[in-house]
Design the sequence.
């Protein structure tokens, strides 16, 4: 059980250090801590205390270790079902119960307090009164599992990480429920020793999920920090480069103007043409570095109230003549007014649509949607182009990375710019792509961060009595 203890506490430490403000991470960390406490109690009882008693007898130290063993064992038995239920409630929260969350958490502690007060105290052979604890612990486990597995996702980008979390959490927890609560209530003890294998598999799934798909937002957090630091480095570097080149190009322009004037006054036409070529090259260099600088500079957001559906439709309007054989599918949830920088968000959407159209080479299907969830609004841009493999998709948000070889003036800054815009708005950008199928890009706006409010559409005016309504008929009339 030494491995179980160390492994679970390391996972708890990773979860808590990664995002200590997240209630989901804190509560899953508490699940791991309580599970590891049970393994610690077993390790003390089977390894450390017997070794100390046999080799270096020390009565007070043995008493102290026994007290730690008892506390760890009780923390595991009483804490595991409680924290598991709190984790499930945070992972799949109910809007109806949000106001009562604190009271519910306190009420769930009541069976634990009653058991501590009115059941026999801890001993090595019967740490808890199983026949009583099982009547509240098992409902906690089953309710938490139901809440956990019934979580629904509005979009594909997050659903697969849910099943990675299920594989890591459910098997060891449900096995522990069976061998540590159900079987002991029937007189079958010590079966929890077989939990080592399931915990090992769960830790393996955790590590694979962390680096491949993401786990509890950890991979997203790691990627964000890496991209943020990269963008900061690129921003400062291009700012210095832009300033230096701008100054030197200004000097070149000043002196080439003098040289050109001299060439014109002395009738040296060939020299004047050569100087003009140098001037054009200097202007081109300045223009190119200015374009890079504009895309990488630290954005200053100027938020205002905007109808997100109208912004999306207005951004798509100029592309309609350019679609050719590309079929556009537009599905927009109407009426959402948000406080955002319309210019920056519009440019971010513009980059995604432009990339999607270029990826399809004149033929395919372009899907653009605005969907509403409980806590967020999601803009999705999906194409049926060639798509990207995993390595390309992982690098897509890195500045200056591009798959558009041979394209002039393409710096690979469109997606990093869109990512930067979303971060400034408290949202995030996600990419899902498969070779031969296409690419999906999601712009996800948390409603609370953009002050999203749904505005009901104004009622349509009824025609005056005796007059006839003109125009197209609605879908209900057809």
Sequence:
């Amino acid at each position: 059980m030494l491995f179980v203890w160390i492994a679970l506490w390391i996972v708890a430490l990773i979860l808590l250090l990664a995002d200590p403000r997240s209630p989901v991470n804190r509560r899953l960390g508490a699940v791991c801590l309580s599970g590891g406490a049970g393994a610690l109690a077993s390790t003390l009882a089977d390894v450390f205390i017997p070794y100390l008693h046999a080799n270096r007898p020390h009565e007070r130290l043995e008493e102290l270790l026994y007290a730690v063993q008892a506390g760890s064992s009780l923390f595991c038995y009483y804490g595991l079902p409680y924290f598991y239920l709190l984790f499930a409630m945070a992972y799949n929260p109910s809007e109806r119960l949000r106001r009562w969350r604190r009271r519910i958490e306190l009420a769930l502690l009541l069976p634990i307090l009653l058991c501590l007060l009115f059941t026999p105290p801890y001993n090595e052979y019967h740490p808890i009164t199983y026949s009583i604890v099982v009547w509240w612990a098992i409902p906690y486990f089953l309710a938490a599992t139901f809440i956990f597995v019934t979580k629904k996702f509005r979009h594909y980008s997050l659903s697969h990480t849910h099943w990675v979390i299920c594989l890591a959490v459910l098997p060891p927890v449900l096995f522990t429920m069976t061998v540590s609560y159900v079987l002991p209530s029937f007189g079958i003890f010590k079966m929890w020793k077989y939990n080592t294998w399931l915990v090992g598999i769960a830790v393996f799934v955790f590590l694979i999920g962390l680096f491949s798909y993401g786990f509890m937002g950890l991979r997203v957090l790691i990627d964000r920090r890496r991209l943020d630091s990269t963008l900061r480095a690129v921003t400062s570097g291009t700012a210095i480069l832009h300033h230096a080149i701008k100054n030197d190009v200004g000097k070149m322009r000043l002196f080439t103007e003098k040289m050109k004037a001299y060439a014109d006054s002395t009738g040296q036409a060939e020299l004047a043409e050569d100087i003009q070529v140098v001037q054009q090259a200097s202007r081109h260099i300045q223009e190119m570095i200015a374009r890079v600088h504009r895309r990488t500079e630290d954005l200053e957001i100027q938020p205002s109230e905007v109808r997100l559906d109208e912004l999306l439709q207005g951004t798509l309007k100029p592309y309609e003549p350019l679609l050719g054989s590309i079929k556009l599918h537009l599905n927009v949830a109407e009426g959402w007014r948000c406080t955002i920088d319309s210019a920056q968000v519009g440019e971010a959407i513009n980059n995604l649509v432009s990339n999607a159209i270029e990826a399809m080479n004149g033929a395919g299907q372009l899907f653009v949607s605005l969907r509403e969830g409980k806590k967020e609004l999601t803009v999705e841009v999906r194409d049926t182009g060639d798509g990207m493999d995993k390595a390309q998709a992982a690098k897509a948000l890195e500045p200056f990375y591009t798959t558009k070889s041979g394209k002039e003036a393409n710096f690979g800054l469109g997606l990093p710019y869109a990512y930067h815009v979303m971060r400034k708005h408290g949202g995030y950008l996600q990419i899902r792509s498969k070779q031969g199928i296409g690419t999906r890009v999601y712009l996800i706006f948390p409603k609370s961060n953009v002050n999203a409010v749904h505005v009901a559409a104004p009622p349509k005016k009824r025609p005056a009595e005796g007059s006839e309504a003109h125009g197209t008929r609605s879908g209900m009339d057809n």
User: Anything to note?
Assistant: The CA atoms of residues 303 and 340 lie 4 Å apart. The first helix runs from residue 2 to 18. The chain has 14 helices and eight strands. The first strand starts at residue 304 and ends at 307.
